[in-house]
Every structure is written in C-alpha cells, then in structure tokens.
Amino acid sequence: MTITKLSPIWKLIILFLGVNNYNYSQTQIIGRVTDTTQSPLAYVNIGIKKKGIGTVSKEDGSFTINIPPEFQNDSLTFSIVGYYEVSLLIEELGSREEVTIRLKEKVIPLKEVVVAGKKPTEKKYGIKRRGAIHFTDGIFKKDDSFEIGQVINPGNALVQITSLHLHINSSRPDSANFRINFYRYDTDENVPRQRIIEKNIVQRHPIKEGWLKFDLSGDNIWVKGNVLAAIEFIPEHKEDAKQILYEVKLGGSSKSFFRKSSLGQWTRPPHHYCLYATALTGKNAPDEIDDEETLPSFSLKSDFSTEPFSFFVRLPKNYSKNKKQIYPVIYLLDGNAYFDPIANSVERLVKKKKISTDPIIVAIGYENAYVMDSLRNRDYTFPIAFPEDSFITSGQGDKFYDFIKSKVINYIDLNYRTDTTNRTIMGHSLGGYFVLYALHRQMTASLTFKNFVAASPSIYYHDDYIIKEMKSEASNKQASNEISVYMTIGELEMEGNESNNFTGLSKIIKANGVNIQSETYKNAEHMGTAIPTFENGIQFLFHREKTD
C-alpha cells in the first residue's frame, strides 16, 4: 500500500508552522549571476547562511529573492561548486534596482587515484529497502530549493561511487533537475561538514514512481569513511509543476539530514530517506547492514482505547551484570519515530562519557506508524480541540496521563530495576505539549516524574490553555523545587510569531518554583529541535561532573 500524503509525523507540524506566515514588508532583490566572462551561471545557490532563506539562479543566471525584515542586516551569499563564493550585505543589494554578481572560477588540481588489487565488486550503502508502510515527506513545497541526504559508510578504503538511488512515490508528467553533492560527516558532532567533491553534478530526470537512479559512473567520485550523500532539488517555478513525492522510513538508527536551502543549516529529522549509493569496492570490504527499525518489547491496552500501545525498551549496557543496581527511566513519546535515534544517542553519550548515568529508555508508541497520526492527536491533547482546528479526535490527554501513571509505570517498575524517584518524560510538538500538561497535573500533587523535556511544545493549542492554567493555579512549591524542566524552541519558529509565548511560559514555570532551563536554538525551525533537545536534555539531566 502506498500512501501519497504527508508523513503522520509531519502533517500536524506543517499545519502548526502556518502561524509563521505573516505579512511584513520584505526586501526584494533581483539580479543575475555570471562568471568573469559574463556568461550566465545556472543553479547558483543564493541565500543567507544557516537561515533557511534561499533560492537558485535560473538557466539564464537570473534570480529573485525576497528577504524578510528580520534578516535585513545579514549578508546574501552566492555559491556554486567550482567557483569562489561571494557574500554581500543585503542592505547594500536592496538599494539597487538590479544587481549583477560575478563569480570567479576556482583552479582545482585533479588528484590521481590509484587502486590496486583484484577486480572490484559493487556494493550498496544507505537505506536500500522501504518500510512495511510507505510514507512520503511533505515538508517542502514544489518551489523550494532544498537538499536531503543520507549518511553512508563504505569503509576506510577509497571506493568509487557509481550511482545514487532515491525512491519516488508517484509519477508526474514532466522531468526535474537535481544536483548531487557529497559532504564529510563529523561522527563526533553528528553533523555534515565541508563539501568533499568539488564538482557541479546536475542531472535532469523524468519523475516516475520507483527508484530514481543517478548514474555517477563517469564522474570519478572517490570517497571513504562516513560521508553524507545528498540530493539537491532545484525548483523551476512552473505554475503547473507538481511537488515531487519521495519516500521516508521510520525507525532505525541510520542518520538522514535535510536543509531548506543549500546554504541553510542541516537538520536531522526523525525519519530516514530511502536513499542509497552504489560503490565499486574491494571484495573483502565490509557490507553496510540493513538498518531495520527495532520491534516493540511489549504492548499494553488502556481502558480508553481499543488500539494497543507499543513499548520499546533500551536497557543500560551493564544491566544484566549489575544485578542490584537501579536505574533512572526516561519515558519518550512518539516512540515509533524517536526510539532508535535516541537509543543510539544514549549509547554514544555513554561511550564518550558525556553522562554520569546510563538510563533505561521506555518509548511509548503505537501498533504501527500509520495509526500514530490520529492517535497521538487524541492522546497528547487536552481539552478537546476547537472545531476550527480540524482535529478528527482530540482531548484525551487526561486519560493518557492516568494510563501512564497507573498502568505503564507500574508495569515498568515491576519488570525492571528502576529508580522510582528519578523518572523523566520527553516529547516534541504536541508531545511537548503533553509533557507540559503532565507537569501541570503534578504541580499540586505527588511527584510522578522528576524531569520534563519539551521540544518546541505546541503551547498555543486551545488558545494557550496550558499557559493560562499554569498561570492561574498556585503550585506546591515544596514539590516543585524537586522538579527540573528543559524546554526549547527554534529561533525560526519564534520570528514573526507574536502568538508564541515561549518566553512568558518559561517565566511562569520558574515563578512556580520549578528548576527550568529554557533555550532558543539558533537558526532552527520546528522540525529541527526534536532530536537535539532530547540529546541535550539527557545531558542536562545526567551530566557528568567535571573532576580535576
């Protein structure tokens, strides 16, 4: 079954992001990009670095870009492989009727690659198989210039990349332009770094359902180690052009990234792109194991739902050896999407000694990712949504909270060696809203959770219900002093959105006697806060004290 609609994870997020559409005066910059001989340069990346504001030049080198008012003091960068990039002040460019930008070509010496040994064999690296249920990524619009990438690791020896493959979910009657890029991947910081192939590889392909192949056998691309293989979608701004729908897969610990322009900041989504590379390598080179999602450890039914809840459990490394040790528990919402990447993150934090305690992770999910769409709306919200919010089902957050408190926690405490005084709950977007709702529920009651981690919580839900409730109700100050909250929001979802009272809520929580650390993630938008917040929240709660 193929579902050509927004991924369940993102459908509500995209709806919520609509609050950022505001009409302030913008600066429009019109111009043309050429080389030093005044020949037009097509597909030049034009934008503000790490800000998600960008476009590309057309085939004749022309471009138009609108700059929101909050970026007027920034610089606009012009960049394309094989040329030196140029950055100019937006204020200066905006004062001209039309601008001409000339880029100087780089002189890049060719490196000779000598491969010795037996006849190479071709192997695949990346996400080679689709999930059991097929979802498409609806984050981007058809006119967006954006880039998606998948981390591959062909080993420590040089290999020759022969092709990239991306799964397209539905056909459209025309073709489109794509640019292929490769970046060094920093495993310590978990971020893509500099471009490693200084070659402008642009290909045009018909958009047909199935695996779209980018033949790179004649491009002499050699890589080794951890590399981000990326595909840049180049918009054509045609009125009748349809959005390209490509497949994403939930679960698994592999790493995918996207950015809204090729000068923007990389963001790690909770899903993975069905994107893989083929490479010529030695016969004895290691194979990349298929990245399968973890199966649930058990399931439980609630009194308010006929659908069972699935639970994914990650135990500390030495859990079976230390028979008398008890462990703090992290309860993670949206478990179908977030369990594998966060379990992988904790493994890394423990290995690098970034945290003092190795916690148990219990991720709460659903029977499958398909039903997660409507059920998370039902379970993570309270009260019932307004009719204009168009929620099919909502408002049972009170029942979901009671289910976790009475049945889930009891089951975990009975079956695992848990520290019953040290529980954490984490969630993103509507999941972040539920985290704050759980905080509100226990402000005047006994402690269920000691720690709360909320990534970009949807605090505007039901006309700022959670803000009003926390402001009007006095808390148990003695109990509140034992609570810690880590709450974040993306800088880009704050800009121009006067209804987002993130700072005000932080002050209200602090006034109630709660230990809170709130952060605005620079250059991040709503979808870019989830995994970094969970990782940083875990370090905030379980940080290792510095020793002399």
Architecture blueprint of SSEs:
Blueprint (H helix, E strand, L loop, with lengths): L1 E5 L1 H10 L9 E9 L9 E4 L4 E4 L5 E6 L7 E5 L6 E4 H5 L4 E5 L17 E6 L7 E3 L9 E7 L6 E10 L6 E12 L4 E5 L5 E6 L3 E6 L5 E3 L3 E8 L12 E4 L5 E4 L11 E3 L1 E7 L16 E3 L8 E6 L12 E6 L2 H17 L8 E7 L2 H11 L17 H19 L2 E11 L1 H13 L8 E5 L5 H12 L4 H4 L3 E7 H4 L7 H10 L3 E7 L8 H13 L6
Parallel strand pairs: 1-10, 2-8, 25-26, 25-27, 27-28, 28-29, 29-30
Antiparallel strand pairs: 2-5, 3-4, 3-6, 6-7, 9-22, 10-19, 11-18, 11-20, 12-16, 12-17, 12-22, 13-14, 13-15, 13-18, 19-21, 23-24, 24-26
Helix pairs in contact: 1-4, 3-11, 6-7
Question: Keywords for this structure?
Answer:
six-stranded antiparallel beta sheet; 11 helices; alpha+beta; single chain; disordered N terminus
